[in-house]
Hints:
It is a single chain. The chain is built from 2 helices and 2 strands. Strands 1-2 form a two-stranded parallel sheet. It is α+β, with helices and mostly antiparallel strands. The protein has one domain. It is elongated and about 45 Å long. It holds the Pfam family Usp.
Amino acid sequence: MTKIIVGVDGSEASLEALRKASYLAEPLNAQIEAVGCWEFPRMYDGYLMMGIGGLQGER
């Protein structure tokens, strides 16, 4: 199956790209895959260095 991959970040431009992909997907019989990624802020590294990592799931 044909796939159209669109990067999204919440900006108007990325949402327009998703709309264009939707417009193209039907005549191409394609599946749309929206992909988003981000980078943790630099201050996040400091918490790991201080030993505060792995908080998810701890009780």
